[in-house]
Specification:
Blueprint (H helix, E strand, L loop, with lengths): L5 H12 L4 E3 L2 E3 L5 E7 L2 E11 L2 E9 L6 H15 L4 E7 L3 H9 L3 E6 L2 H8 L16 E7 L8
Parallel strand pairs: 5-6
Antiparallel strand pairs: 1-2, 3-4, 4-5, 6-8, 7-8
The structure holds coenzyme A (COA).
Coenzyme A binds next to strand 5, helix 2, strand 6 and helix 3.
Amino acid sequence: MQDSDREEVAEFVERHWHSRLVISRGRSFYPHKERGFIERRQGMIVGLLTYRIDDDAMQLLTLNSTLEGHGIGSSLMLDAIERARKQKCKRIWLATTNDTLRAIGFYQRLGFRMVELNLGAVDEARKVKPQIPEVGERGVPIHDEIVMELLLEPYLERG
Ligand SMILES: CC(C)(COP(=O)(O)OP(=O)(O)OC[C@H]1O[C@@H](n2cnc3c(N)ncnc32)[C@H](O)[C@@H]1OP(=O)(O)O)[C@@H](O)C(=O)NCCC(=O)NCCS
């Protein structure tokens, strides 16, 4: 993500997450101010992954694809995994909500494990961000946060 992308990224995040602000494990973030990977088709953003790196961990903040099932989400994740390895991160983690059924399967197929369940975390986050809907994907009520983690093998530079 370049500085020239940031306003467009902020609008994309707002469209998909009801605000420019996202809350993860009780902390607030503005993804357009962080780092990220963008996928475009005919100039329009069709995929966005945002992240930050703290110490040896990459935290994914948002992941969205507007053209599902065409490999965009996978390609963004592979970019993030490669970046994390190059930055010598030991793990990639994210907090998602209990309704993101498709994403939860998608992350597990990439090797992520569920490492934490924060009961009622979204109900708490809703006090800070009232735009968070009560009901999400496929009519699932949204209450809880699931933390998922991918442990990385040490990065081997190719000679
Ligand atoms: C999760 C998400 C990012 C996946 O994005 P995507 O672009 O559909 O991802 P891909 O196309 O790479 O892979 C998705 C599926 O399509 C399949 N696929 C991959 N390449 C494909 C291709 N060229 N043609 C058809 N299908 C393909 C994959 O096997 C995968 O199968 P699955 O749905 O059973 O996991 C997307 O569903 C999304 O934006 N969800 C809503 C937001 C959300 O929940 N984000 C995560 C919150 S933390």
